[in-house]
Amino acid sequence: MKGEKFSILNVLSYLILILWAISTISPFLWVINNSFKTTSEILLNSLSFPKELSFRNYQQLGNYGNINMFKGFFNSFIISGSVVLLVLFISSLASFVLSRFDFRINKTFNSFATLAMLVPTFSIVIPALILVRKLGISGSYLSLILPQTALNLPFAILVLSSFMITLPKELEESALIDGANFLTILFKIILPLSIPGIVTVAIFVFLWSYNDLFMSMILIPIREKQPICVLLSLVSSIYGTNYGAMMSALVITIIPVLILYISLQEFVIKGLTAGAIKG
Amino acid sequence: MSLLFLVFLLLFSLFIGSAQEKIKIRAVTYFTGEDPWTNVWQNVIKEFMKKYPNVEIIDEATPTAGDLIRTKMKTDFASGNEPDVAFFFIGADAEPLLKTGKVYTWDEDLEKDKDWSKNFYKGALEFARYKGSIKNYDGKIYALPTIGFYEGLFVNKDLFDKYNLELPVTWDKLLKAISVLKAKNIIPIAGSILDSYYLIETLILSAGGPEGHNTPFHPSWETGLNYIKRLYLLNAFPKDSLTLKDEQARELFYNKKAGMMINGSWCVGGLKDKVNTVIMPVPVILGGKAHPTDIIGGFGSGWYVSKELNEKKNGIPVKFVKYITSPEVEAKFIAIGGVPAIKCKVENVSPAAQSGYDMMEKARTVSMPIDAQINPEAFTYIRTNLAYVVTGKKTAKVLLSEARKIHEEAK
Amino acid sequence: MFSQTKKYVLIFLIPSLILISTFVYYPLFSTIFYSFYNWRDFSNFRKFIGLGNYERLIKDVAVHKAIINTFIMLITVILFQVGFALILALMVHYLQKGYKFFRTVYFFPVTISGTAIGLMFYLAYGYEYGFLNSILTFFGKDKIIWITENSALFMVLIPIIWQYVGFYFVIFLAALSKIPQDFYDSALIDGASKIYSAVYISIPLIWDVIAVSLSLAIVGTFKVFDIVYVITGGGPMNASQVLGTYLHSVAFTGQNQGYGSAIGTLIIFLGLLLSVITNKFLKRDRITY
Q1: Residue A243 and residue C174: Cβ atoms within 8 Å?
Q2: Taking the CB of residue B166, how many other CB atoms lie within 10 A of it?
Q3: Pair B352, B152: CB distance under 8 Å
Q4: Do B78 and C254 touch (CB under 8 A)?
Q5: CATH numbers and ranges of domains, chain A
Q6: Boundaries of CATH 3.40.190.10 in chain B?
Q7: Closest in B7, B33, B42 to A239, CB measured
Q8: Per the CB < 8 Å rule, is A127 touching C26?
Q9: CA separation, residue A138 to residues A133, A231, B127, B325 (Å)
Q10: Element (H, E) at C275
Q11: Which pLDDT tens digit goes with each residue over B14-70?
Q12: pLDDT per residue over C103-125, tens digit each?
């Protein structure tokens, strides 16, 4: 692989790679930079640096019209946090069974889950809205948490069970002989060993839930409980041409996930590649 | 460990909600963001909560843009999430809400509480009296109007003066203004084909007069739409009018980048220049059936209360609406813009607002807009497909016959 | 012992079974059921109309346009999203320098919501106050109408493609790193150039991963909504309409849930059909190493 150092191919490759990197970084820098400027400053020249570092735009986010971005943030945390915990708990139960035993029901269950993964949210949202009303949970956080959990379960089960399959069976066999029951085996032996898989699932489920506009917009109509992505979709209608406010709204939506990603990226990449390479 | 902490935090946050024992009132309006009445509305809520400390009003204002509020109201009602109080459209949009049987009727209160009801203009209330097929509501008043509206032609008079243009009181003068403004690099009419509600309504009125306008799918509707196409072909609209949202179109007019706009009284509050803006009827097209003073307007929205929730919450929703419909509060709303439904004293009326009132006063007839009369899906169809007509990809006749089919299927 | 095990198996599977059945399968079959009804305004009354909604579906220009757009999207996503990601991954793989940096940075847009990305591009595309035009005016050029009937699909495709390149890039990069060095060594002895070794060694060896990525990309195309919804809402004249945005506008703006359900049924049908086709088409003998 070590060949000539200055071939045209190498230079061209670097050029393309760097250009693409610029394309993925610059929009964020541009948004962050503009979030400190007034709208007229932005319109005059959106590439310049702010004349003064001002948090005016951010102050508006707490209450602009009736849109409180901070509250939306809090809601997102509750909803996506609950979805992640629920998915992890329920899927690890199922994955444990699927990876440790070879019953006929397993195969049926597997196709049941795989098929469910193909169902787009568009095809279920209308009845889902009616369903949450029938269940008496409409308007609560649960009305979004439960459907999102169900939609994420198939993915989580497939990833986790394929991870658990790779764990050696000897450990639990000796535990079984010692008289440990299933729950102990799962929580004391299997789960601690599956942490990389669990983290991967957690991150992807979180991202998916945090960014899911379609379901959130329809299933949680109550403003007090809407997650941040819904509020963000209202921003261009509500803020009119107040670009400064829009920029700061973008920043506070984007930054937390970017930080989360950067701090956990090793897990993300490991999990992503493990999952995909196994297919 | 951190997982445990997370669980704890989650549980804790769920508790915060139930710790306070205030009566929560959810109120849906469209007073939000850049809407001119937003500030008044928010202050009114605050004052009410100060007066009744045990009540918390949850402001769920949703913009009218992109039909967001329509979707919200209908799904809220259908999914059993109806708000306690709502300021929402009346007319065709009320139908599905009334069908759920959850809407409170005001007749009894109006009868009993004369001190309060005597201030309403009788005509205004009539806009929200139901006449239709739902028996429980027949002849009843299901919403209380407070802010009336009109649609018309807004003119930046300073620009007209600058270029020696006469006010566009006739179609010819409008055409003249368009060609002069265009030559001076000013957008003649800040109009959006995407959000073409007001263009459709005013030009159909201009073509068919009140009779034609108020008869679903009257032949004059085709003429009206064709005139929008003519204006489009004259480049009277902004270059990106096919994708421009109404909010941005208004901004063009406010910032004097456009000479005129066809819009409604809700824009008066947002005007940056309230002195040099004149509001007048859209001129009658050549051969149009309308009288030069005929306009679109009336009371298009009213205060709704949920019947069950009102009972459950000891009548506080009704109390809140009575507070909003008091002359004092009404005056605050009208001071910003709109036509009053309740007798009240408004001081310091701006010249722009005054010209709007004058137009309303001189009007021979005031017609409720089309979207209050035909099925919303059919109107949405006309509006979202108008781009096909103005770009010549479909004739107005075909579009209207397609919309008519939808309208009839929906019955 | 065995029967006790079986009991546990069932208990462990039941929560998943219940949730997935209730919130995925039940609504899915309800959607198919509702698609045969005239049902509006979420009212509690609906009328059976047989294939009425489907007749309308077949004639509906917006649906035609949405399907065509979805297929155009499919092809461009395969070519430019997966294809470009592969090229980028090969480049980084051969150059080795900056491996971690590119991997981190290219993944940024994947983590951001479509809504936020859509809003960013919406702000860029505006005519009068948009940022692309403000740059043009800054340099003394004439403003451009960025979103027209002809360009709308293209303009929404840019962010859609851009967002997920990093996703496939990371997958490919990891797969490439697992190819043992000997394969290249033997190729170098043969005097193979880099491009040659990429085409004849690397790509065949990671073909499995490419196939998985392609089917992920295809399934993903049917889920496009946020970016289009925020930037154009499907317009102008349905030019950028996709099935998701059209379903939303019919069922929620137009308040026709019966017809909306028919569109929902069409989406799941097309999605299943394509998954089956891609699985058949992409199956190839595995190369083990």
Answers
A1: no
A2: 12
A3: no
A4: no
A5: 68-238 (1.10.3720.10)
A6: 22-148+298-362, 149-297+365-409
A7: B33
A8: yes
A9: 5, 19, 33, 31
A10: helix C257-282
A11: 545 444 578 899 999 988 766 778 889 999 999 999 999 999 998 888 877 666 788
A12: 889 999 988 888 889 988 988 89
pTM of the entire predicted model? 0.85
Interface ipTM? 0.85
Q: Could you say which residues from 373 to 402 on chain B have a Cβ atom under 8 Å away from some Cβ of chain C?
A: 376-377, 380-381, 384-385, 387-388, 391, 393
**Can you read off the two tokens belonging to residue C260?**
């909306």
Tens digits of residue pLDDT in B205-254: 999 999 999 999 999 999 999 999 999 999 999 999 998 888 888 888 99
**A263 touching B, CB under 8 A?**
no
On whether any CB of chain B is under 8 Å from the CB of C233, the answer is: yes
Q: What is the pLDDT of residue B222?
A: 96
Query: What 3 state SS string does A15-38 have?
Result: HHHHHHHHHHHHHHHHHHHHCCCC
On whether the CB atoms of residues C225 and A214 are closer than 8 A, the answer is yes
Angle of helix C61-76 relative to helix C152-177, nearest 10 degrees? 30
Residue C225 has pLDDT above 80, yes or no: yes
CB contact under 8 A, C171 and A273: yes
Tokens representing residue B327 in the block: 């002359």
- For residue B230, how many other CB atoms are within 10 A of its CB? 13
CB contact under 8 A, A237 and B66: yes
Which of B33, B58, B251 has the CB atom closest to A238's CB atom?
B33
Nearest partner of B231 among B269, B202, B274, B267, judged by Cα: B202
Which of C264-282 are b and which e, b meaning 16 or more Cβ less than 10 Å from the residue's Cβ? bbbbbebbeebbeebeeeb
Distance CA B238, CA B258 (A): 8
Fold classification of B149-297+365-409 (topology level)? D-Maltodextrin-Binding Protein; domain 2 (3.40.190)
Q: Give me the DSSP letters along chain A.
A: ----SS-HHHHHHHHHHHHHHHHHHHHHHHHHHHTTS-HHHHHH-TTSPPSS---HHHHHHT-BTTB-HHHHHHHHHHHHHHHHHHHHHHHHHHHHHHHH---HHHHHHHHHHHHHHT--GGGTHHHHHHHHHHTT-TTSTHHHHHHHHHHHHHHHHHHHHHHHTTS-SHHHHHHHHTT--HHHIIIIIIHHHTHHHHHHHHHHHHHHHHH-HHHHHHH---GGG--HHHHHHHHHHHSTT-HHHHHHHHHHHHHHHHHHHHHHHHHHHHHHHHHHHH-
Torsional sign, CA C47, C49, C55, C57: positive
Chain B interface test: which of C41, C65, C125, C143 (most B C-beta within 10 Å): C41
Chain C residues in contact with A237 by the CB 8 A cut-off are: none
| B22-148+298-362 is a CATH 3.40.190.10 domain | yes
Q: Which of A82, A85, A238 sits opposite B34 (nearest CB)?
A: A238
Strand pairing partners for B87? B303
Q: How many CB atoms lie within 10 A of CB B337?
A: 25
**CB of C231 closer than 8 Å to CB of C2:** no
B96 touches C at CB < 8 Å: yes
The whole-angstrom separation of Cα A137 and Cα B306 is 19
Task: Say if residue B318's pLDDT is above 60.
Answer: yes
Nearest to B83 by CA among B93, B75, B91: B75
Under 8 Å CB pairs connecting chains B and C tally to 86
Whether C116 sits inside 8 A of A260 (CB atoms) is no
Tokens of B270: 């947002």
Whether A221 and B72 lie within 8 Å, measured CB to CB: yes
DSSP C79: I
For C51-282, give the CATH class.
Answer: mainly alpha
Decide if C238 contacts C15 (C-beta within 8 A): no
Q: Which of B291, B268, B267, B295 is CA-nearest to residue B281? A: B295
